[in-house]
Design goal:
Layout lengths: L3 E10 L4 E10 L2 E7 L5 E14 L1 E6 L9 H11 L2 E6 L2 E2 L2 E2 L3 H14 L3 E6 L10 H7 L3 E5 L13 H14 L2 E5 L3 H14 L5 H6 L2 H18 L2 E4 L5 H12 L4 E6 H5 L2 H8 L12 H13 L4 E3 L28 H11 L5 H14 L17 E10 L19 E11 L2 E4 L21
Parallel strand pairs: 1-4, 5-6, 6-9, 9-10, 10-11, 11-12, 12-13, 13-14
Antiparallel strand pairs: 1-2, 2-3, 4-15, 7-8, 15-16, 16-17
Helix pairs in contact: 2-3, 4-7, 7-8
Length: about 450
């Protein structure tokens, strides 16, 4: 008689060490044993030899529904499964549907549950006129955190929240012990910079970076971290493209405040002078991709432990919305779920950094950030058996080749990736075998923070 439902063997990667000749034993979808040497018996066994057996990634920033009639959870979670991402944290700025009440959280969770192939958690937000009044209802409905913007991208879909309203919301969120996540761009300064660029006549790839200089990010970060310090709210900046921002976060953290910061994978991979120059609209992201010196500054901060999590800020805009030669007319954002793990592993190995950092930045830390560590984020007893197997198998990335992405374009097209996922398990079920996504829409489950209603 088998002792376990599933045993997976290989080089098991934890947040603090690698277990050579390791195994993970699973029963009823959760991890029950982790060890080395001869594994126990199981009904199902997968031997991965020298490949890295890693905790499934939690992508902290996904936009599945930014464009109506486009990707949705059917495709975003398919890309996730193929990329070793076992939980997506989806943003609340859906096209035509701002997720700003408890009822809207419930509706989105129901609809996503019918589509998702991997597990998912949901951010909530507010309508500016509501202030904090809907926050309690969203917490009860299972929101894992709250997202706000200091820049008015769209008054209905992606509104700016004024600092006095932010402060009131932070005070309310602090009572629940959840995070306030911030899109960090100072509205007034960005609008002034855009006007200057428009007057200059610059319309090529340089226009976007010039329209959002680094100080527009860091000024917004200083403001929200101070609001967090004064309100007692855990304050998380959801993307930072410049080294100075990580210094600010670390300063507040050293003062004893719960300040955290996120590096999107594009800021660690792409630069303005080489990549945005050739990509033009496909390289337009807010905040902008910066010059190579800032990329290296971010890697310095990663090695120093000043980056909390790494994410994609994934969004699959249709190609026509990313192909205008006038840089400022393109939509902002890019897909990345299929290559998040591969790109981070590439960067770590090229810089001689330990592979355990991938486990920390993609799993352990995100699970703490969203208060879902009771289930997710580690290969540990009692956690969901969310596992990603990364093999050394160098290849050139072609986003249209796998069939797992809604769009066939990517800013990472043509990059050589030393590692690729060859298996993904969600709650002990193999959802991706290295070629095919094996589970139908509806397999994924809604993940609530510990203690949520």
């Amino acid at each position: 008689m088998s002792d376990f439902d599933l045993v997976v063997t290989g080089r098991v990667v934890l947040a603090d060490r690698v277990i050579e000749d390791g195994f993970i034993a699973v029963r009823d979808g959760t991890v029950e044993r982790v060890g080395s040497g001869t594994p126990p018996a199981a009904r199902e066994r997968h031997d991965f030899g020298g490949a890295y057996v890693m905790p499934g990634a939690i992508d902290s920033q996904v936009h599945s529904r930014s464009q109506a009639g486009q990707e949705d959870f059917v495709w975003s979670t398919r890309s996730a499964a193929a990329g070793g991402v076992t939980t997506v944290v989806d943003m609340p700025y859906d096209a035509g549907f701002l997720v700003c009440t408890g009822d809207r959280i419930k509706r989105k969770a129901l609809e996503a549950g019918e589509q998702a192939r991997v597990d998912f958690a949901l951010y909530g937000t507010i309508a500016p006129e509501d202030g904090p009044k809907e926050i309690d209802g969203m917490v009860e409905a299972g929101a894992c955190g709250f997202k706000f913007s200091t820049f008015n991208t769209d008054s209905k879909r992606f509104p700016r929240i004024a600092p006095q309203t932010l402060y009131a919301c932070f005070e309310q969120i602090a009572r629940h012990g959840l995070i306030a996540g911030i899109h960090n761009e100072n509205d007034e300064m960005v609008r002034a910079a855009i006007a200057e660029v428009e007057m200059s006549g610059i319309r090529d790839y340089r226009a976007h970076g010039l329209s959002r200089p680094p100080v527009t990010e860091t000024l917004a970060m200083a403001e929200v971290y101070e609001l967090g310090a004064q309100s007692g709210c855990s304050t998380h900046v959801v993307h930072c493209s410049v080294g100075r921002g990580y210094e600010l976060c670390n300063g507040y953290r050293q003062q004893g405040h719960d300040a955290t910061v996120e590096a999107c994978i594009h800021y660690l991979t792409l630069d303005e002078e080489n990549d945005v120059r050739r990509l033009v609209g496909k390289g337009k992201i807010n905040p902008p991709i910066r010059p190579r010196k800032e990329v290296e500054a971010l890697w310095h901060h990663l090695a120093a432990g000043n980056i909390t999590v790494v994410s994609t800020d994934h969004v699959s805009w249709s190609e026509d919305r990313k192909s205008d030669p006038d840089m400022l007319k393109n939509a902002s954002g890019a897909p990345g779920l299929e290559v998040l793990y591969s790109l981070l592993m590439k960067g770590l190995t090229e810089r001689g950094l330990p592979v355990t950092w991938a486990a920390r930045l993609l799993a352990t830390n995100p699970s703490r950030l969203f208060r879902i560590g009771h289930r997710k984020g580690a290969i540990e007893l009692g956690r969901d058996a969310d596992i990603t197997v990364m093999a050394h198998a160098p290849s050139i990335y072609e986003p249209g080749a796998s069939g797992h992405n809604y769009v066939n374009w990517s800013p990472y097209q043509g990059l050589e990736l030393p590692f690729r996922p060859i298996a993904t398990f969600v709650r002990g079920t193999c959802v991706f075998d290295g070629t095919d996504v094996l589970v139908p829409p509806g397999f994924g489950a809604f993940v609530r923070p510990a203690g949520a209603g």
